[in-house]
Amino acid sequence: MSSTENTTITRSQNHKSTPTLNAGKITIEVLKAWEVACVDYFENAREVPDEATKVSKILTGLINPHVNTWINMNRDRLKAMTFPAFMGEMRKRFLDTDWEKDLRRKILRCRMPAHAIFYDWAEQVLDWNSLLVTPELKLTEEALKAQLDAGMSKDSG
Length: 157
Known about the structure:
Blueprint: E1 9-10, E2 20-21, H1 28-44, H2 54-58, H3 65-79, H4 83-94, H5 99-109, H6 118-131, H7 141-151
Antiparallel strand pairs: 1-2
Helix pairs in contact: 5-6
């Protein structure tokens, strides 16, 4: 897989194995899916890991070569982090610098295609908003309602 193709994640059906982040370009969507898979893994582990050991439990699942090199160079520092702090480092290190601002602009510019199903389009906008981490950039419920109303296709009304 080339580094221009998006990476994929692999997770076990029963959440008993460490989720893997495979080779390829890391996007916020894939990184968030991997984060959710890790949380599922933590919650379903035989022995639920405490906050201090969560990061060390999932490092073996990061088989993406770029991430793996970074881990090998920073293993002790990363293992000492909480999982939320580790995910913050992952976003900072492997996503485009302005990913959050770009995603917010994408939400604000989004218009429903003429023959799209409103529910599907609205779910996509809500999903994008849920990926934003900075509270100031995340649209409030009221702002989302206004955005959906403004972007709605005339054919859907």
